[in-house]
């Protein structure tokens, strides 16, 4: 087969152009550090790279959300710890005020200590989260959720917790009403309350349910006689005397209709204890009640003291339960963030293998292409000299 000189020249030029193009491409790869700079470089790899890039963006966004949530949860955890501390300080002052040797002036001093704890607790309950929201304002509250009123404190925040990351149940803010306002009296089913007029040093525990099926929801009274040595048990809802003239001993259990309480201490003349269905009360009301009674001589009997202490204990327990919940979610979100970080590293490694250039390999290929280019140029030079005149 006959090959014309022009065909050979064109072939040589094509070889030179191809080598030059390959060298330029390899140089671009070295300059950018990427093996795939355009989809045309490797269509299959480019598609996988885009998928990896999209997944990396999703994981980075998730990690940022979880990181922000961790910061928010740390604030929540600290706020709950501070709230429990303020309530515990109020409890300590109340215990001190129960000292029978204290004067009215000393009890008023303890009332001021409780007032200081009250003010701290109110400030904590209205804490900001650093992003315009409130830690205990519920779902999306932007204003102070706890507002002082003449009758105490009102909750004006939103009900329900706010979730920053529903996928991991990570909290952003808590429903402060559930933590500080809706505290059950007594044991959550019923409460045993000392009458304000009591003069003795008897008290009732929080009581227990002995048979849920027998509970009536009625109100009862334990009424001690003039000597405090015997009692009557009366259903005041129906007006029925269930027990009369029963001898009393400290540590004795008294009950009826599926409930019982343990009475301790020495009752005064005609002291009374009311057993009623549990109601809801705020910790602010409890602390204000304590302040008012300590500032009024003769208003803090032993039974009332024990009742207030039990209410504070319930509030502290509620704050600690919420704190434990936040702590558990912090551990969960941290675990999820770490898993997302590991996946992001894996995806990035996969993308790097597809996209990043192997510098040593690229340099080797450039050297080989330069050698091929030189050979092609020599071939072209030889073909270009071919002429009939060279043989004449």
Automatic annotation (TrEMBL):
It comes from the Bacteria. SUPFAM superfamilies: Phase 1 flagellin. Residues 11-138 form the Flagellin N-terminal domain. Residues 310-392 form the Flagellin C-terminal domain. It holds the Pfam family Flagellin_N. Its main location: other. The keyword Ribonucleoprotein does not apply. InterPro entries: Flagell_FlgL (IPR013384), Flagellin (IPR001492), Flagellin_C (IPR046358), Flagellin_N (IPR001029), FlgK_D2-like (IPR049119). Keywords: Bacterial flagellum, Cell projection, Cilium, Flagellum. The keyword Nuclease does not apply. Residues 195-277 form the Flagellar hook-associated protein 1 D2-like domain. Gene3D superfamilies: f41 fragment of flagellin, N-terminal domain. It is found in: Bacterial flagellum; Secreted. Belongs to the bacterial flagellin family. NCBIfam families: flagell_flgL. This is Flagellar hook-associated protein FlgL. It comes from Piscinibacterium candidicorallinum. The gene is flgL.
